[in-house]
Structures are given as C-alpha cells and as structure tokens.
C-alpha cells in the first residue's frame, strides 16, 4: 500500500515494514514544476505552492500534533532536485526488503 500525502507518514507510523518518506525541493524548482504541470504563471504557481504547504502543515499540526518539517517524523527525506525517481524507488525497495527480512512475521 502506498499512501501519498494526507498525513501518510503519521497514519503508517506503527507499520513494521512501512517507510515514512518525504520528498522536498527548493521553492523555485517547485514553482517551475507547478507552472509546467498546471500551466500557471509564476505568481499563481507560487501562491498555490504556499497554500498547499500551509494546508499540509495544518493537517499534521491539527490532527497529529506534529510539525511537518520535523525530520524525525520520517524515516528518510529526499531532495528531488538532486535525487532521481529511480534512485528513490531503488532505495525504498531496498529498505522494504530489509525490513521484511528482519520482520518476525517473515
């Protein structure tokens, strides 16, 4: 099961083989990606990014009393500016395989 966003890092915190990960990137790169994906101008894209960031932070704070920016809330944090999707997926698979092999249920 893969949970993207929606406080997935907190919802899955007690799963023995779950991987709580966060992808981050510099704001300027995030704005460019939003502009490309949504067709927004820079001002609109930056506003949408800030609105989404605030909404996500509020969700974790209000329902889980957690700071979204606390790295201890995640097993790993990747910067998507310097890490490719292939690198992330290979690392996640390796982590899951390791956890499955060490799990008492395996």
Summarize the structure.
With 106 residues, this protein is mainly α.
Write the layout of secondary structure elements.
Elements: H1 8-11, E1 21-24, H2 27-38, H3 42-64, E2 76-79, H4 85-102
Parallel strand pairs: 1-2
Helix pairs in contact: 2-3
- What is the overall pLDDT average? 92
List segments where confidence is low: pLDDT < 50 over at least 5 consecutive residues.
none
Q: How far is the N terminus from the C terminus?
A: 18 Å
Structural class: mainly alpha
The beta-strand count equals 2
Which range does the strand content fall in? 5-15%
The arrangement of helices and strands along the chain is HEHHEH
User: What global shape is seen?
Assistant: globular
Biggest beta sheet attributes? 2 strands, parallel
As laid out across the biggest beta sheet, the strand order is: 1-2
Description:
The structure is a single chain. The protein has helices spanning 8-11, 27-38, 42-64, 85-102, and strands at 21-24, 76-79. The chain has 106 residues and is mostly helical. It has a two-stranded parallel ribbon. It is globular and about 50 Å long.
Which characteristics define this entry?
106 residues; two-stranded parallel sheet; single chain; mainly alpha
């Amino acid at each position: 099961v893969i949970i993207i966003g929606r406080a997935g890092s907190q919802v899955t915190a007690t799963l023995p083989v779950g991987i709580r990960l966060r992808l981050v990137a510099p704001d300027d790169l995030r704005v460019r990606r939003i502009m490309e994906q949504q067709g927004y101008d820079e001002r609109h894209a930056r506003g949408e990014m800030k609105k989404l960031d605030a909404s996500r932070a509020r969700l974790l704070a209000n329902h889980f009393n957690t700071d979204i920016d606390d790295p201890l809330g995640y097993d790993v944090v990747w910067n998507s500016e310097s890490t490719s999707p292939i690198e992330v997926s290979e690392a996640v698979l390796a982590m899951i395989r390791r956890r499955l092999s060490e799990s008492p249920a395996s």
